[in-house]
Design a protein that fits this description.
By secondary structure, the chain is α/β, with parallel strands linked by helices. It is about 40% helix and about 15% strand. The protein is built from seven helices and six strands. It has a six-stranded mixed β-sheet, with helices on both faces. Strand 5 and strand 6 form a beta hairpin. Helix 3 crosses helix 4 and helix 4 packs across helix 5. It starts with 18 loop residues before the first strand and ends with a strand.
Length: about 190
């Protein structure tokens, strides 16, 4: 009986202003790596050191309360990210405007399509001015207009000397966006 390691000997350092792409085939360990960085999974060996506030769609999308409206979920996400309620209320209209889901903002999240949910999650995750932004294939959602808007938003965050980690299969994102890439295969770092 062999042990299965989702990730093995993966080591890297990311500094402010860097955008790191994590690429590789399905099952390579990319999403596991993001979940570890987000603090959702604790590594069974090794350690992760993060300085600063992390914002991630992984935790936000999963953290949505299905029975609450989009508007209520924005405020809930703020609390979840440790943000002051007044501060989150101040950002509310900008988040709603960016998500651009019309009157659905006042409907329960369980009525949302997966695209609407992703737009709202992206809008929240990128509005809280994180030090580290983790994105998992998120930008594949939405129409052309939203995609262009998302790209511009992520570039803004990277330009503000924050750190971005992006898991994607879309190589145009990698070349346009990231100044570094890690190639994972079977849980191991093949190239950097």
């Amino acid at each position: 009986e062999r042990d299965f390691w989702a990730l093995k000997d993966v080591s890297f350092k990311l500094v402010h202003g860097e955008s790191l792409a994590v690429i590789g085939p399905n099952g390579a360990g990319k999403s596991t790596l993001l979940q570890i960085l987000a603090g959702i999974i604790t590594p069974s060996a090794g350690s992760v050191e993060v300085r600063g506030q992390i914002s991630s769609l992984l935790t936000l999308g999963a953290g949505f309360d299905q029975d609450l409206t989009g508007r209520q979920n924005i405020l809930l996400a703020g609390a979840f990210l440790g943000m002051d309620a007044k501060e989150m209320s101040r950002r509310l209209s900008g988040i709603i405007e960016f998500a651009d889901i019309g009157q659905f903002i006042d409907a329960p999240i369980k009525t949302y399509s997966s695209g609407m949910r992703a737009r709202l999650g992206f809008s929240i995750a990128t509005s809280v001015d994180p030090d580290v932004l983790l994105l998992d294939e998120v930008l594949a959602t939405g129409d052309q207009v939203f995609r262009a808007k998302s790209k511009a938003r992520v570039l803004e965050i990277a330009a503000a000397a924050k750190a971005v980690v992006l898991v994607t299969h879309d190589m145009t994102w990698v070349t346009e966006f990231c100044n570094r890439a890690l190639l994972l295969e079977r849980g191991q770092l093949i190239a950097e």
